[in-house]
Amino acid sequence: MSSCVRRRYLDLLGSIYIYNEHRGYTAIDRVIEVAKRRAPQDLHFIAALTQHRADERKHYDMFRRWFSLRGTMPFAVDRTCGHIDRFVEIMFRSAIDDLDTQALVTDDRLFARLCRVVALTERRGYRQVEMLLRSASIRSDPTLTKIFEIIEKDEPSHWAPYEAWLARHGLRRSRWWERVIDGFIHSELLLLKLPLLFVRPGLPRRSRWADADAGDATAQLAPAGRAAGSPDPVPAGIGSMVRPADNGTVRHTETTP
């Protein structure tokens, strides 16, 4: 693979991942809200979801720094490349942002469906990362390889709380037709959307980071950590620490060997 083709492929792959990581941690905010309203005494479940959210934010920050090191912004991919977006739309006939929070609070069947969607999405993500880590193109970029190794390590703890909730309530982990939908969404992205985006001329890039939007309360905060007093969750091996400049571009503030 030529260097220019590899660079475009990695830029596009990173763009899809950073979109999905941002969509992931902002969508989990809704799940946490529902969980707290449903059973505020279930502290273990809420803590596990909060950790899931923190990990997704950490992954987003790692990809953001990776793009900053490359001196470019992600391609402007949208919800059509979002696995969780498509899954929720098919399963609930509603966009994530338009889900009926009160219905999820009061209807066990709907909340169980949401738990299955999240768990299946996370398991799918784990299998995808395993495949990517066997790719020579990924291995050609040590920083990107490190990012995917961290994601691979984190993923099993992400589907576990949702499947545990289903088990505690005597519900199945997933249904066969839900797994079919999950597979269809993944194949659609991998075999159709990714190739079309790859050959699309003039594919625009984002002008601002997704977390710079006013609706993202954590936009200007340090990355979410695992616990108070714990070290920066973005490992030093990822590379330079970067922060956005006032004009939306990026500047380097520290370099890690």
Identify the notable features of this structure and list them briefly:
globular, 257 residues, 2 strands, disordered C terminus, two-stranded antiparallel sheet, single chain, 9 helices, mainly alpha
Structure overview:
- It is a single chain.
- The model is unreliable at 217-233 and 240-257 (pLDDT under 50).
- The chain has nine helices and two strands; from the N terminus they run αααααααααββ.
- The protein has helices spanning 3-38, 43-70, 83-92, 101-106, 108-132, 136-139, 142-154, 156-168, 176-199, and strands at 241-244, 250-254.
- It is 62% helix and 4% strand.
- The protein starts with a helix and ends with a strand.
- The protein has a two-stranded antiparallel sheet.
- With 257 residues, it is mainly alpha-helical.
Chain-wise SSE layout:
Blueprint (H helix, E strand, L loop, with lengths): L2 H36 L4 H28 L12 H10 L8 H6 L1 H25 L3 H4 L2 H13 L1 H13 L7 H24 L41 E4 L5 E5 L3
Antiparallel strand pairs: 1-2
In a nutshell, what does this entry contain?
The chain is mainly alpha-helical and 257 residues long. It is 62% helix and 4% strand.
Percent in strands: under 5%
**Share of helical residues:** 55-70%
Sheet/helix structural class:
mainly alpha
Number of strands: 2
Outline: globular
**Spatial sequence of strands, sheet with the most strands:** 1-2
Give the SSE string: HHHHHHHHHEE
